Amino acid sequence: MPTERVVSFRNVTKTYEGSSGRVQALRGVDLDVERGEIFGLLGPNGAGKSTSIEILVGLRRPTSGTVDVLAMDPLADGPRLRERVSIQPQHASVFQQQTVAELLRTWASFYRAPRDPEQLLTDLGLRESRDMRVGKLSGGQQQRVLVGLALVGNPELLVLDEPSTGMDPNARADLWRLLREYRRNGGTVLLSTHAMEEAEQLCSRIAIMFGGRVVATGTPTELVHAHAPSRTLSFTVDSVTGLSRLDGIATVVDTEPAAGGATRVHVDSLDSDATIAMLAGTLGARDIDVRSGGLDGVFRRLTGHEYTVESPVLEGSMS
Ligand SMILES: Nc1ncnc2c1ncn2[C@@H]1O[C@H](COP(=O)(O)OP(=O)(O)OP(=O)(O)O)[C@@H](O)[C@H]1O
């Protein structure tokens, strides 16, 4: 099936002039999102996710580079773009006095072909809160309302900046269901997230951002294969004397005593199939457990950091 590019960034840079100097938030971002994707931007604090999103919807002007969204320039074609692209508002604080239903109805009235606000209330798990003032809702419920405001216009492209922040697991499951259904009906989603699980389970493709650049792009599986292919296997053996047979296939990273004088062994391997065959065969290992490094492993490998690390690039502080 031919793909249709919905978003394209080419060598996009953004420099902020701040009180503590110039901050180079984007240092040459290239990004392509195709129609029908749920595309995730993943990266530590300060990587440039929000700046990219704000440029994408025309809220900020890039310092240089080219941005194309549905064949439009977000700055020059703002009003036309906003009919087809919705972004979730960042804060519910400006809507404190309205009830949830009033707010969704008002917002729906801005669009030509909105979704049914009442159905959306049900889909978002907000039916019982429909007559409550937004200011009285919990943080997670307010977050659902903000996502609802982006969805009610029934856009072609839905842009969400950390949509599941503050949501409990049920709310997050509701959100994922809604976004998958929206995609099945032809929609495209671009979202930023700090949650590896969200990126892994929800997103069809991911761009990992770090220090104002996209450092890797691919499906979650492609990224894991390319950047964190090693798996950790844990197993129990009665004797450790045979472990040397794993040389060349797996590396022992830890051992610990287990019940009945046995030993629990943890190894890393790039060839888990061969390792399992050896463990189950000659070594007589039991309780074999296999774990992938997952996107966590990819993230550590590409950024050299655990998650949520500040990484601003302060021009003034560079020699
Ligand atoms: N209005 C602004 N003025 C000056 N610097 C800014 C401004 N907005 C963002 N920055 C800086 O630009 C860099 C990128 O910020 P941005 O908010 O785009 O990152 P992010 O990946 O969205 O981070 P987070 O995960 O914390 O939301 C950071 O160093 C940030 O401090």
Could you describe the 3D structure shown?
This is ABC transporter domain-containing protein. It is a peripheral membrane protein. InterPro entries: AAA+_ATPase, ABC_transporter-like_ATP-bd, ABC_transporter-like_CS, ABC_transporter_ATP-binding, P-loop_NTPase. By secondary structure, this protein is α/β, with parallel strands linked by helices. It has 2 domains: 5-225, Rossmann fold, CATH 3.40.50.300; 230-292, 2-Layer Sandwich (Alpha-Beta Plaits), CATH 3.30.70. The chain is 29% helix and 29% strand. Helix 8 crosses helix 10 (294-303). The longest helix has 16 residues, at 169-184. Residues 307-319 have low confidence and may be disordered. Bound molecules: adenosine-5'-triphosphate. Residues 16, 18, 23, 25, 43, 45-51, 312 line the site of adenosine-5'-triphosphate. Residues 16, 18, 23, 25, 43, 45-51, 312 line the site of adenosine-5'-triphosphate (ATP).
Features:
single chain, 319 residues, alpha/beta, Rossmann fold, Alpha-Beta Plaits, 2 domains, six-stranded mixed sheet, four-stranded antiparallel sheet, 13 strands, 29% strand, globular, binds adenosine-5'-triphosphate, antibiotic resistance
